[in-house]
Amino acid sequence: MVPWQRLSLLPMLLLLSPLLLLPWSSSAICILDEEGDNCFCNFSTPEPNWKSIQMCLSSVEVEIHGGGHNLDIFLPKGGLADPRQAADLLRSLRLRRLKIKDAQVPAPLLYQLLQALTYTRTQVLALEDLGVSHPPLQPRSPSNPALALKALKVNRVSVAGEDNLMAAILTWLKPGLKTLSLTDSGLSNVPCSDLGTFKELSSLDLSDNPGIGESGLTAAFCLKELQELRDLALRNTSLQSLGGVCGALEAMGVKVQRLDISYNDLRDTSSTQCTWPPTLTSLNLSHAKLKCVPKSLPQKLQQLVLSHNLLTKQPILDQVTELVLEGNPFTQSSAFTRSRREETSEDCGGVPSRGSRPFVGSPLAFQVSGTAAFMLLCGVRGFA
Ligand SMILES: *[C@@H]1O[C@H](CO)[C@@H](O)[C@H](O)[C@H]1NC(C)=O
Ligand SMILES: *[C@@H]1O[C@H](CO)[C@@H](O)[C@H](O)[C@H]1NC(C)=O
Ligand SMILES: *[C@@H]1O[C@H](CO)[C@@H](O)[C@H](O)[C@H]1NC(C)=O
Fold first, then answer.
1. Where is it mainly found (predicted)?
2. Ligand 2 atom closest to the CA of 263, numbered from 1
3. Does one domain contain both 168 and 208?
4. Which domain covers residue 198, as residue numbers?
5. 369 Cβ closer than 6 Å to some ligand 1 atom
6. Is there an atom of ligand 3 within 6 Å of 282 CB?
7. Which atom from ligand 1 is nearest to the alpha carbon of 67?
8. What percent of the chain has pLDDT over 90?
């Protein structure tokens, strides 16, 4: 039996004692910072001591790297305990940000984690490089409270067999979610049926889902509902034309300020005229195989990233205050032609637009980490 499995209420409470909030000397597996706020665990060794995770019990931010281990070992034969029995303890945790990365997680354990987290004050949850075994993940039952997350980041989480994992996870969230990232998750469309409830969403990242495509964006009518949406990232989603993207955004009446559609092979079919969202001030067209600068850009555009395209001439874009051009053919060949005010060689055409809002700084940084997960996953069993 793994030592962690024997962990019960008493040691957990002892760990919560203020005396033990003092910085611990670092173990090989988990590292706690001076203030005891951030805890990082790396269980990459062949037979890690899972109990090391106790060190993170009082942390605010916890990041767990599971080293690819299969967490089946934490599935007890008699079934998992109900975290409700540990509600008071869970409520006392300081945990706000949790990241779990690189492990095989049985769906029932993931369910128990989500259930346990509802009793904590966790605001940010990141799940990355996880394989979910023993599917399906059951949706939240109405008797369970929902999770009041501000941000959920799911990156490269896959399920054995067919299962709508995203839909099941999203049933756990309260509507107040602000940031959602479902990247590299094999999505074949914008998951509108699941997104419609998150009316306060301000940042949505669906990058690295090539299955979405332009038709997926055009059909994403739920974007109409997301009136608070300011950041939209659709990197590497098989978008094909700037006009198509503009048309879809116009049809949905989105009010995004920052749009990242880098890593899409964009041609520009400019025959259809379209108005970019008037709010749009930052557009990322990096790695888009563009041979020329699209002619009609958002009118109030302040930041335009055209790095790593196929531009052969220095573009002139007076209204843009921040223009990123590195990695284009002309930057290699014409270092001394800055004074030659050349027009672009091809007419990309484009779409007229009006913009209005000032550019607002960096996108929501989402540095989450997590370690108390295993604790939450496994520790509550002690109360059964
Ligand atoms: C985790 O530890 C392994 C070696 O055990 C190391 O190769 C890996 O880089 C570590 N990961 C992180 C994120 O520190
Ligand atoms: C786009 O996403 C797919 C699916 O995850 C990935 O295999 C591919 O490497 C990504 N392409 C780029 C340029 O990042
Ligand atoms: C634009 O997109 C590229 C590629 O995805 C990325 O490396 C870069 O950081 C982005 N730039 C901005 C300003 O967002």
1. membrane
2. 13
3. no
4. 190-384
5. no
6. no
7. 1
8. 64
